Automatic annotation (TrEMBL):
Regions crossing the membrane: none
InterPro entries (alphabetical): BRO_N_domain
Signal peptide extent: none
All copies of domain Bro-N, residue ranges: 16-132
A Pfam family annotated for this UniProt entry: Bro-N
Protein origin, superkingdom: Bacteria
The protein's name in its UniProt record: Prophage antirepressor-like protein
Lineage: Bacteria, Bacillati, Actinomycetota, Actinomycetes, Kitasatosporales
Native species: Streptomyces griseoloalbus
Amino acid sequence: MNEPSKQPHSAERHGAIDISDFVYAATGERVRRLTMPDGSHWFPAVDVCKRLGYTTPRKALLDHVPEDHRDSLETVTGSHCLSIPAGRSWRRDLQLIDLQGLILLVNACTKPACAPFKQWVAEVIETVQREGHYTLAEAEVQPAGPGAPIAYAMPEQVAEAIVRLEAHNLQLDEELANGQRASIALQKEMVAMQRDMLATQQATLAVQQAMVRALERIADRFDTLVLKRRTPPGPFTALPTTESVLADWRQRLSVTEDVWAVAVVIAPVLVEKGELSEPLESIAARTGLSVRRVNECLRLLREHACISSRGGAEDGAPVYVLHQV
């Protein structure tokens, strides 16, 4: 910082100290900045207050920044016939502070990181009080070319503050990178665990499917055994019908007309009732045969294992049932 009266015009235009470095040393952060055509710099008050640890930006501005050094974004840009920057964060009513307002907030801040900058400001004031001016030392290497601005060496306190901030930021970046690497490693472990869990689930599913198939085979075998137990013995694999009984009798013996007449009469009764207990006279009357001939036909059916005798009824009539092997 130089005396305004002795500061060359080119240095005023370009800035004796880079404004980004200056603000960085003052706040410890890179904050947003609007630079007007006249070279003045304006900063969002909310950004500066957040970096300096002020919890209530409005109160901080009222307490430490005069009205001359703060204004709304719309007023600042409108005074230079400029449009408002694009983006949601650049609202028309956004409060801005100029460089003096920023320095006032820094001087009122109690954060230890602001101490080097505040000490340098104190040194500048003391030097101006004692010697009447404060002059930056010119840099050893100056830009070449006609009309090039004079380059000044950065004040030691500001340079040291920037170095410490950069070192701190590098450390934070390294810690962040380490955290990200650890997070990636953890994510890889989680993916591996998920793959193992998936493999286990697939193996479990395969075992369960095998068990289901085995149980299905056991159930089928059980059903087969139960069906065999429930199937009535004899030449029939299913419940007999009159048609199946007559067909089976045709295969067992040479059926004559008389035998067939008796078979047609007794087969439905044996299938429906399970036994035949009619007197021979009743069968003879239904077939038109003699009682003696009916008896001979029944004997032939017994001899060829078509029917079986099961004693007699109370009225003395013989009882016949289907033959069972």
